[in-house]
Design brief:
This protein is mainly α. The chain is about 55% helix and about 5% strand. A hairpin with a 2-residue loop joins strand 1 (about 90) and strand 2 (about 95). Pfam families: Cytochrome_CBB3 (PF13442).
Length: about 120
């Protein structure tokens, strides 16, 4: 009985772990999470966002642990967004830690997010 329960528990853990780590490689060109404009650098900004930001802000920008970013460009300028990414921010949805992206990545993500209005 214990062996069956342990096997079931480990199997379930494995499936859940793989589901959480699995990311789709959606190569659809129609994908533009949250609207805004789509440029060559926007594609890079979205890619960086997907890698570094989506775990808190959601792959659809609608927020998860972090706030909704679908219209962040209507509230903040590119420079303000870059400052938040570099230096972090405390808000009603928790804390954005500083340094989540660095160098050119900050500007690419900030430019992409600034287009979300």
């Amino acid at each position: 009985m214990k062996k069956k329960l342990l096997t079931l528990l480990l199997g379930t853990s494995l499936v859940m772990g793989l589901a959480a780590c699995g990311g789709g490689n959606d190569t659809s060109k129609e994908k533009n999470n949250g609207g805004g404009t789509e440029t060559a650098s926007a594609g890079e900004g979205q890619k960086i966002y997907d890698q570094k930001c989506s775990s808190c802000h959601g792959g659809d920008l609608k927020g998860a642990v972090g706030p909704d970013l679908t219209k962040v460009g209507a509230t903040y300028s590119k420079d303000e967004i870059a400052d938040i990414i570099k230096n972090g921010k405390t808000g009603d949805k928790g804390v954005m830690p500083p340094g989540m992206a660095t160098g050119d990545d900050v500007d690419k993500v900030a430019e992409w997010l600034a287009g979300k209005k």
